[in-house]
Amino acid sequence: MADKTEYRFLGGSGLKVSNICLGAMTFGDWDMFPGQRDEAASHAILDRYAELGGNFIDTADQYAGGKSEEIVGSWLAKQEREKLVVATKVRFSTGKDINRVGLSRLHIMQSIDDSLRRLRTDYVDLYQIHMWDKAVPLEETLSALNDLVRAGKVRYLGASNVTGWQLQKITDLSKSMGLNKWISLQAEYNLLSRGIEWELTDVCREEGIGIIPWSPLKGGLLTGKFERECDATEGTRISHATKTRKINEAAPDFEKVKKDDKTWDILNVMKKVAEAQGKTPAQVAIRWLLQKDVVSSVIIGAKTVQQLEDNMGASTGWEITEEQIAELDTVSQMDPFYPYRMIATFNSGRVRKNMCQ
């Protein structure tokens, strides 16, 4: 149902994806996060996502020890494969053997075959490095991944969780080696985490790389369901992380969040915009990302069909006004540090007029 979902080109490629990507990290038993979905519940979410026009599914070989890929694969086997864009990742440990980790040619070649078997498909549309691997020469990694494209096992390449210099090096070395262009960057990006704007967004604009934000709701914090005066809502990632001390980017420590005035200022502006738009705070958080020029698609995670439908409501049919965007940008702006503070100050003209030209 194309009228329910907007489609965009992924970066500078000719690959069209729905602007809401369904993340499959919630599929399969995994003690890292609470409320994981079994196969039946996961398939129900996937079915509804496809009914709403979604065509972009993201997983990884590491998620739930490979169970996420298996669940996606058992669903994928019943679909028209060519209508779907399936993304997965390689980098982290996939076994006890010393070579079952990293971005070596050996591990990449082993991992893609394992992923294809679990996904029950002959190819993946987007294969992404899950993080940089400083132990392996970049030329080895790039060459191995390019060979997968030439072999037809992979259609496009992308990166996740890298720095600005790392992404630029990937881009420049790929050009000099005559290899396929990388088309996407998967990174944490939301109203509470805007660090990629210091350099990564500039690299992506210059090089035609589409950004696929993960954790757009910061583990549920940007849904508006948390109250500063109360404990974290039971059953959420944030509650689980706070209790178990398994703090991570997608599940911040709620005891620290309570003390952060800026977080609650952002949430208050979000709620005001949501009320004015007749939308939920979660939809505003996702729509804010979708109106950034470098964003191709936003990854959402859903534990229920209801959550999925609410998040998909950010896809199309409405926009946050320029005034509301400006207010959200201002309240969520990060304080610059050197050298970005110096560069920003100089470029603003406040310094230039007092310096020799």
Strand and helix map with partners:
Blueprint: E1 7-9, E2 16-18, E3 20-23, H1 39-51, E4 56-58, H2 67-76, E5 85-90, H3 105-119, E6 124-129, H4 138-151, E7 154-160, H5 164-176, E8 182-188, H6 200-207, E9 210-214, H7 237-244, H8 254-258, H9 261-277, H10 281-290, E10 298-301, H11 305-312, H12 322-332, H13 340-348
Parallel strand pairs: 3-4, 3-10, 4-5, 5-6, 6-7, 7-8, 8-9
Antiparallel strand pairs: 1-2
Q: Which CATH class?
A: Alpha Beta
Give the count of structural domains.
1
Strand order of the largest sheet: 9-8-7-6-5-4-3-10
First CA to last CA: what distance? Answer: 57 Å
Flag low-confidence runs: 351-357
Rg on CA atoms, Å: 20 Å
Give the helix proportion (percent range).
Answer: 25-40%
Strand content: 5-15%
Order of helices and strands: EEEHEHEHEHEHEHEHHHHEHHH
What is the level-2 CATH architecture name?
Alpha-Beta Barrel
Q: How many strands?
A: 10
Would you give the CATH topology? TIM Barrel
What is the number of helices? 13
Mean model confidence by pLDDT: 92
SS class: alpha/beta
* Quaternary structure state of the chains depicted: single chain
Please provide a written account of the structure.
- GO terms for molecular function: oxidoreductase activity.
- This is KCNAB1 protein.
- InterPro entries: AKR (IPR020471), AKR_Detox_Biosynth (IPR050523), NAD(P)_OxRdtase_dom_sf (IPR036812), NADP_OxRdtase_dom (IPR023210).
- The protein has helices spanning 39-51, 67-76, 105-119, 138-151, 164-176, 200-207, 237-244, 254-258, 261-277, 281-290, 305-312, 322-332, 340-348, and strands at residues 7-9, 16-18, 20-23, 56-58, 85-90, 124-129, 154-160, 182-188, 210-214, 298-301.
- β1 and β2 form a beta hairpin.
- It has 357 residues and is an alpha/beta fold.
- The chain has 13 helices and 10 strands.
- The protein has one domain: NADP-dependent oxidoreductase domain (TIM Barrel), CATH 3.20.20.
- The strands form 2 sheets. It has an 8-stranded parallel beta sheet with strand order 9-8-7-6-5-4-3-10. The chain has a two-stranded antiparallel ribbon with strand order 1-2.
- It is globular.
